[in-house]
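FOLDING PROBLEM:
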Amino acid sequence: MMRYSIRGPHKGPALLATAVALATVVACSGGSPSGSGTSAAAPSGTTSGTSSSAAPTSAPPSPTPTPTRTYPLSTAPRTVPAVRDHEAARGPGWKPAAPAGVVVAANSAGLADEGRLLAGELGIPYRGTAAAGPGDVELALGGTGARESYTLTVRDNRVRITGPDEAGVFYGTRTLKQSVKGTGAMPEGVVTDAPAKPQRGLNVDIARKYFTAGWIEARLREMADLKLNQFGLHFSDDQGFRIASDSHPEIVSAQHLSKAEVRRILALAQSLHITVVPEIDSPGHLGAVLRAHPDLQLRNVQGVPRQGAIDISKPASAQIVDDLLREYSALFPGGWFHVGADEYQALTVRSPSASYPQLATAARQKYGPQAGVQDLAEGWLNDRAAVVRAAGKTAKAWNDGFFRGGVVTADQRIEVEYWTGKEIGARPPSEYLAEGRKVVNLNDEYLYYVLGEPNQFTYPTGRRIYEQWTPLVLRGTTPVAARYAPQILGARLAVWCDLSAAQTQTQVANGIRMPLTALAQKVWDARTPALTWDQFRTLATQVRG
């Protein structure tokens, strides 16, 4: 990095000291400042001597140089989440001032959207693909770093942000934006940054409570500035089905998102490098579907229906769910689809086979004489995962849909979304990890924002997440062994609307603001945060507004 010093010919230490001393004398006597090209007059009456031949005169002193300005060593930019590494340097840093603009390097035209967004946020022009000039911010693809990594260099009044992919460069622009918002400038030096976890985000239940497209879009923008990259959309449950359907319009709730609205949400998400993960939960939580198809509802041996549960012994049950999975796999372009699998009511009774003999019979017919209702449910999960896999998606499912023992085992390729150890038959996280499964953390002890706080849930706080939780804490408050860290893909904060009227959309947004901010810090950087909670909260207010 640039180092600033006093420069000039033949300026050894002794001469420099003499120059400084002379400057001090002149300043103290009220004379001309050093380097002005003038000298003090000789005292009156003084002669050069009486000899007839003049004594040799010494050379006039060199003019005193004007010192070059020096800068203290820079400090890391103040951002949320904090950057992973900053190489300090001496220099003025960078501020968005004329003639600064944002440019895209050659062979990096795909960064045009990122360039336009940043230029608008900084209030400087976007000049497209062009050579960087004085004061400019240059965005460029290149390098061999990890996915979503970036390098941000501030030198000679220019900023250069590079990364191996567009997402990494985008996250570099978020760092620049936050630093400028918080302090007015980006410090001199080099930031090298990358996330600790590949999946980082927010999950929202829009099935129990309708949220507008505008509200969802605002959350996406908020997430992007925090370098979060995954938005789970739970849009089907007992209380509602919230996205228009072409294959089964009869199941759609009166308040719902049109497909045009969904496409607008998806376009925004894509521009912000966020993947939207749709969820159609089955074989439980299908009440909205079953209201239009009561013949498919699960009934026990006495004919009593079970809320939200579909009868998985009936071929028509698989057909309608698969119709929906295929329809929405085509609508959502991302690489995941959540197929649910939690809280199937047939498995919450003392003897599932006695209470639901039709399920027991179907299990034996499909999987052999030793199979039971659990195996039929596990086979249902595998079959639904196969449907979305055929559409190019990786399946996700809740942890209580994965069972120990039995004839049928859940497909190893399904990602486990671990939320609870409270459900009947729920297993500790270490069992899934020991099986080699990949797990995502949605620990209901820390990361569940349940409207109305039913069933002993309490609203999560940013402070508790920041001070106590890490991605290793999958269940309760105890972390799993550190050797499992590579299998834990990340985490999401989850909003569930069990008592939907308990909060307005605005109250939900305000309530999750700091928990989401704390989560962002903990999934981006696995190290213990350097700031106290109070310092972190103050910083978040400064850089996020």
